[in-house]
Each structure stands twice: as structure tokens, then as C-alpha cells.
Amino acid sequence: MPDTEPTLPRRDLTHTPRKIIIFGATSGIAEATARIWAREGASLFLVARNSDRLAAVAADLKVRGAALVDTAVANLDNVEEHPVLCARAVEALNGLDVAYLAVGILGDQPTAEQDTNHALQILHTNYTVPVSLLTWLANFMVKQGHGTLAVLSSVAGERGRKSNYVYGSSKAGLTAFLGGLRNRVDREGVHVLTVKPGPVKTSMTAGMKGSEKFADPDKVAAEIAKAVDKRTDTLYTPVIWAPIMAIIRAVPERIFKGLNL
Question: Which residue in 124, 141, 154, 173 could disulfide with 147, CB within 3.0 to 4.6 Å?
């Protein structure tokens, strides 16, 4: 399998179903978004760790109308495998219009406070892994002159809180990386979308207090798909999180540090 970037011709995307790679394809938000793209007739390459779950998602997307569904079972923590994996996906799709990264773990904050290895695992999966993938994907898209990188970050990255500052710091770093990447590649025709969801009802948040009030993943997915189409730079979803986080960012540190958040 090639480990270098395939060279593909530029093409008119106006009336062509999109070719999309989804990393973390079995996550709740990613699966919901993939269903939207499948109904539009997109060609999809799905990457996830759980082979049984991945096969089930792929079968469902074929039924929903995807022009093509191919898959790869991969542990994305193994960053040295990323170049071959990305090249394989592009080759299978015969092109690339959108790369969608829904990669991450919540981890356990109390454990991370006592166990350095757990803290570093959260940082590796949530920051190092997407940076590795995005570097390859961005360079490929710059070379071809078009493409969209849509990446799930989090409102948790807006400000460090004692309840989740390890997870939050990984997302803060990712958001900053995406901002710099956008500044570099936008002039090359490549769109970078930073998605900042609030809590969403998924398997990752199932055990959290108040999870019954979290956002519906289908509604979040619809907003993400729309943001990709509109070439939005940053999406807070649900939108209420934009003013909420503006208020949180504005609280002076001398006050914020005493809050029980």
C-alpha cells in the first residue's frame, strides 16, 4: 500500500457527490453525520477501532444511499500508521473532498490527576492523533487545491475547569492548531471547520450527570453538515453555547478560580 500522497486531477465539485473520509466513524455524532451524507449519495471511507460496530455502521449507510462505503479497522493512537491509512482511503475513494475527524476520549479527570499515564493518553488521543492526521490531509488537499477538514473539538477547550481540565486542555490545543492551520491553508482553497459541541447524548456521555438533557446527535449532525456546505470557520452546536462560552471567557480569573465548575 502506498505511503505517499497520490496525485489526483483537479475537478469541478459543483454537481459531483462528495468523497468523504470519516475518522472515528462509529462515534454517535460521526455516525449521525454520515447518515446525512449517505442520503446525498456520497462515497464514504470509514475508519474506526471496533470491527463489528464498524461493519454494522457501513451496512446501514449502504442501505441509506451511499454511492460507496469502504472501511478500515485501525487504532488511530498508532500515529506511525497514519500516512498509509490516509493514502489507502484516498485511493479507495479515488479522490477526497471532506475529511471528518470525530476522534477523542473523555477520560477520567480524577484518575488523570493521579495517574500521569492516563493524563498523557487523553492528550495523545485528543491532540496528537488529530494533529498527525490533519498534517497529512492538509498537505494533500493543498496539493490538489481544494477540500474541507471538519474536526470535532469541544466547548470544554474554551477555559480550564477543575472538573475536566485534562480533556479540556487537549481540546484547547486542538482548537488552536485548527486556527493556525486555517490561517495557512485557506488561501490554498482548503476549508477548515472547527466544531465545538456542548454535551451531546452519545455513548461517551451516557454515564454523565444530566445526560438526559444533552443535545440530540442528529440535530448536531445536521448543523455540522450545513456548516461544511457553508464553509463555516467555527461552529458552536447547539448555537446557545456561543453566548454561554462568551460569558464564561469574560469572567475574571480571580473570580473564576473560586467557582465550583
Answer: 141
